[in-house]
Every structure is written in C-alpha cells, then in structure tokens.
Amino acid sequence: MPVVVLDLFFCRPFEYLILLTIFCNCVALAIYTPHACMDSNRLNHYLEKTEYLFLVIFMIECIMKIIAYGFLFHPGAYLRSGWNFLDFVIVIIGLKARNQFVTVQQGLFLANERNKTWLIQLLTQKMASEGIETRVSTGDCDTYIVRSRLEKAISHPVVFITGQDVDLVVLLIALAPPESNIYFMKSGKRKVEDKLFTTRKLQKELSFP
C-alpha cells in the first residue's frame, strides 16, 4: 500500500494538482476583502466555500504522505520533515477553525444595519413557520407595541404584553381606554421575580378617568 501511494504521490499530475491548489488558495486569500461587524459580500461567500475544497485537498495530501512515509516513529517519517510538519499544523488549524463558531458582542453585531435586517428576517420567517404572527416596527417600538395591543384588545378579551421597559407601562396607562384591561408582565432578572400588572388596576390606583 505505501508503495502504491508513493507512486501516486510522485506522479506529475498529482504534483501539478497540489501546486495549482496552493496557487489558487493564495489568490483566494489575496482577493478576500474583510468587512467590519461580520458583514460580507457575495464574492467573500464564494471564497469561503472554496476554502473547504482547498482544505479537503490538503488533508488528502497529508493522509497520503502519512500512509507512504509513516507518521513519526522511524527515520524518514512524515513529521520528521520540517515542511511536512508545517503542512500538518496548517491542516489541523484549518480543521479546528471550520468547527468553531465566531462569537461577537451583541451590540457590535447589531450595530451593522445589514446584520440587524438579516436577523429580523430570520426570526420573522422562523416564527411564521410556527404559526406566530409578527410585525416589524419602523418607528418608535414602544408606541407601536402598545397601539397594536390596543387594537387587539377590541376583539380579544385577554391581551398580554411582556417586557422590561417601564415606558410600556406608562404608555399603557395613558392610552388604554378605561373599559379595556390589558395585562403587562415585567419579566424579572436573576433573583427578581416576574411582576404582573393590569391597566385597569393601575389607572384606578393613579386616579385616571
């Protein structure tokens, strides 16, 4: 088996394939354009996909050399060559990088408008597939949330709003008709428990008409 692999490894077409792969990989790295905040473009997406092809070819070359020369424990073994050792390290790093998720701070990711739009579309599609109605606000979110729930309260006897923003409570008290009774649940954090309010009770306590 090692003899067959050596014959294949030293044949000219295989050598040309490896050299062509190295050249194409260098070109791909040269024309790849990094963008801030995880942004990208169509060309970068194509280049990222070709990286998988390059990695597979280099990994096959690495495996063939190990079969032909042996791994480490005898003279002429694969890892006893400095160039082979460098190739091996590069392949391992490439495999590890492909299995890791890029993590960034939430604020940094959402600071990019395209990232934000993509995330909203993704969540909207996911919720729609689960039968959940979604609406996207282009103005003041708090006002939009309260007004949309007030519309629902006309035809639904029980309406809930959940959130942590105090502005939602203030808007509900000011805008909710006296005959409506909308529930607002302020979700707690850590040791703080959830709290449930109703517009009718809050308006009565604050002497709203």
UniProtKB/TrEMBL annotation:
Pfam families: Ion_trans (PF00520)
PANTHER family (alphabetical): VOLTAGE-DEPENDENT CALCIUM CHANNEL TYPE A SUBUNIT ALPHA-1, VOLTAGE-DEPENDENT CALCIUM CHANNEL TYPE D SUBUNIT ALPHA-1
Keyword Transmembrane helix: yes
Membrane topology (UniProt): Multi-pass membrane protein
Provenance organism: Araneus ventricosus (Orbweaver spider)
Chain's gene name: Ca-alpha1D_4
One GO term describing the cellular component: voltage-gated calcium channel complex
Segments forming domain Ion transport: 12-95
Location(s) in or outside the cell: Membrane
Name this protein carries in UniProt: Voltage-dependent calcium channel type D subunit alpha-1
Principal localisation: membrane
GO biological process: calcium ion import across plasma membrane
Keywords: Calcium, Calcium channel, Calcium transport, Ion channel, Ion transport, Membrane, Transmembrane, Transmembrane helix, Transport, Voltage-gated channel
GO molecular function, one term: high voltage-gated calcium channel activity
Ranges that cross the membrane: 14-32, 52-71
Highest taxon above the source species: Eukaryota
